[in-house]
Write a sequence for this structure.
């Protein structure tokens, strides 16, 4: 027979991970996640969206050095902002952004419940190696 | 507003987390610290010398021997305090366990839950 004092913590940890998986499944079944998947699918079938995304990616690549070193000139910053506005003006992209924000809000609400219950900021402490890790 | 299903799932996850040793130990250590004013005082006493030492370093100067000695005395007092050390150990342990639990949510969801719950300003 297993030692119950050793077995119990392992069972409690396994229970927490099973409950984590159940939360993931509940999120996956939510209408917000379904809407996000549909929005993602719509973008992949929209040539206008693909062209706008490609144009934005190209510009970001061109300006990568300036962006990472924080040395963007005002004209480059304006060009980037203009290109981003053009991207977000594409209806399927705007719908995708809205769907992402809606699902993120749902996820943050679940994390907020967890934080309250465990007395610790769950979102801040869920990232391995700290904020940027 | 969350659906009943999601709220229930989040609450069930929270309650299961509270029973996991890493979280249970952290909650117990936090309670012990909250109920021990002398331990809190030892922690507070460290903050002044620590800030002074860092300010001196950040200004490109070498901290004085007095600053070094004062910081070491405060650090030794923290290390000698069982409540503080328990809290520190429990915090380190829970910070290793929570990412594991969050990754389990992501695996089941099929998307990066941790990114989704990050505050908007987070890197």
């Amino acid at each position: 027979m297993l030692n119950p004092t050793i077995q119990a913590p392992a069972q409690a940890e396994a229970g927490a991970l099973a409950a984590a998986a159940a939360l993931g499944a509940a999120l996956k079944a939510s209408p917000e996640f379904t809407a996000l998947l549909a929005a993602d699918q719509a973008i992949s079938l929209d040539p206008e969206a693909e062209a706008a995304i490609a144009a934005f990616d190209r510009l970001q690549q061109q300006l990568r050095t300036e962006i990472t070193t924080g040395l963007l000139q005002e004209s480059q910053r304006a060009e980037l902002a203009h290109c981003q506005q053009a991207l977000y003006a594409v209806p399927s992209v705007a719908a995708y952004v809205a769907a992402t924000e809606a699902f993120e809000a749902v996820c943050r609400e679940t994390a907020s419940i967890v934080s309250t219950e465990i007395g610790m900021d769950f979102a801040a402490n869920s990232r391995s190696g700290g904020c940027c890790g | 507003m969350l659906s009943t299903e999601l709220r229930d799932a989040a609450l069930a996850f929270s309650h299961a987390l509270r029973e996991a040793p890493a979280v249970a130990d952290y909650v117990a250590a936090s309670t012990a610290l909250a109920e021990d004013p002398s331990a809190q005082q030892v922690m507070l006493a460290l903050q002044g010398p620590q800030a002074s030492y860092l300010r001196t370093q950040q200004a490109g100067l070498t901290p004085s021997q007095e600053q070094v000695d004062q910081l070491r005395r405060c650090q030794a007092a923290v290390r000698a305090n069982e409540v503080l050390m328990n809290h520190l150990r429990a915090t380190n342990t829970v910070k290793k366990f929570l990412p594991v639990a969050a990754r389990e949510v992501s695996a089941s969801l099929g998307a990066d839950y941790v990114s989704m719950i990050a505050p908007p300003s987070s890197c």
